[in-house]
Amino acid sequence: MIIQPKTRGFICTTAHPEGCAEQVKRQIDYVNAQPSITGPRNVLVIGASTGYGLASRIVSSFAAGANTIGVYFDKAAEGARTASAGWYNSAAFEEAAAAAGRKSYSIVGDAFSDEIKAKTIDLIRTELGQIDLVVYSVASPRRTHPKTGETFSSVIKPLGGTYTNKTVNFHSGEVSQATIEPATEDELRQTIAVMGGEDWQMWIDDMEQAGVLAEGATTVAYSYIGPEITHAVYREGTIGAAKNDLEATAKRLNEQLSTNGGRAFVSVNKALVTQSSSAIPVVPLYISALYKVMKEKGIHEGCIEQMYRLFSERLYGNCETLVDEKGLIRVDDWEMRPEIQAEVAEVWAKLSTENVYDLSDLAGYRREFFQLFGFETDGINYEADVNPEVNITNLR
Questions:
Q1: Cα-flanking dihedrals φ and ψ of residue 232, to 5°?
Q2: Between helices 283-297 and 338-350, what is the axis angle to 10°?
Q3: Tens digit of each residue's pLDDT (9 = 90 or more) over 135-193
Q4: Measured between alpha carbons, how far is 55 from 156 in angstroms, rounded to an integer?
């Protein structure tokens, strides 16, 4: 079939297998061009098929030479429906890892469930023995609690008051005002249940009890803080409350693991184009302004550059300032440089529909959004007939 992008709001409902494979190849090529890392040997990535999770798996495998297990919730092609981008990404990763002589396995299912945790633990015990790095990179709008059966849904809302600021339709380029009503107490509770640290804690507890977490193991989860522009809807909103819970979980896990020489961290990463960030009002416009400034300064990074720097300079490097005063790893440090933020704020004040393409990198944002799904990638013939059915080599 000939596969073209079909969008519904901030979601692309189709994905291109060859385009996704090319995007994965480019990330692998980047890592292979960097110095190798002396780091983890057996890695579990929970939320491994896109964004920072996928990049973490690539860095682990191709920079550190590690064996990996990826857990993710993606769908294969069915009838006229393509597979999800994460499915195609993972298929491409598995093929490349096998060619490089790395062990890699994929488990597809609900990472929040007891079933998938047990299945993963059995696979670790059978194939790898123990895990010395656990990456938690789950991004989901919903979670069914494995013990109570309650299903929670997250919301992206401010707390305490109505929020209004600029936003952009990145398809049309229209800059407008977004107004978001504050979350209720129950919406806040549910968002923390989905995006907080409880499930991360459950994974580590289950792995420890099963004896598949190696002595001295490290675990890391990902977060974002961002600038004052986005705080009301992000860091000071429902998502921020969930991230606070995640960070509190990291402190508890660090104490728990330290008795056996282990460590737990939250890494605060740079703002990037992801399916999740595209859903947050204000954020796509901020990222577009940020990209233009950082690209002009020559310090722009994508997921793979961020994760390589995290692994090589922080988790397994000799960085003297591993964490900040709150105990967080900060690989958003280039984004948050005062001179960068001052320039972005100056641009932000001027942004309108008439000048958004001149003052920001909205065109780059839009292109990168479609590249998440394998589209708008140089070297791919999108008029060619392709088979949407792609197998994942080591699917368990």
A1: -60, -40
A2: 130
A3: 999 989 999 999 999 999 999 999 988 999 999 998 899 999 989 999 999 999 999 99
A4: 25
What would the mean pLDDT of 344-373 be, rounded to a whole number?
A: 96
Nearest CA to 307 among 156, 184, 133? 133
User: For the whole model, what pTM was predicted?
Assistant: 0.95
Nearest to 46, CA basis, from 102, 107, 87: 107
Active site residue 357: no
Render 332-388 in DSSP notation, one character per residue: -TTTT-HHHHHHHHHHHHH--TTTHHHHS-HHHHHHHHHHTTT-S-TT--TTS----
* β-strand partners of 376: none
- The fold of the 13-141+153-371 domain, in CATH, is Rossmann fold (3.40.50)
Catalytically annotated residue among 88, 163, 234, 365: 234
Reading the block at residue 5, the tokens are 């992008």
Which residue, 374, 393, 335, 308, is CA-closest to 62?
308
Contact 202, 146 (CB under 8 A): yes
Q: Which residues contact 351 (CB under 8 A, 6 or more apart)?
A: 166, 175, 285, 289, 359, 360
By CB atoms closer than 10 A (0-12, 13-18, 19+), residue 359 is middle
Buried (b) or exposed (e) across 316-337, using 16+ Cβ within 10 A? beeeeebeeeeebbbbbebbee
> Distance between CA 69 and CA 312 in Å, rounded?
20
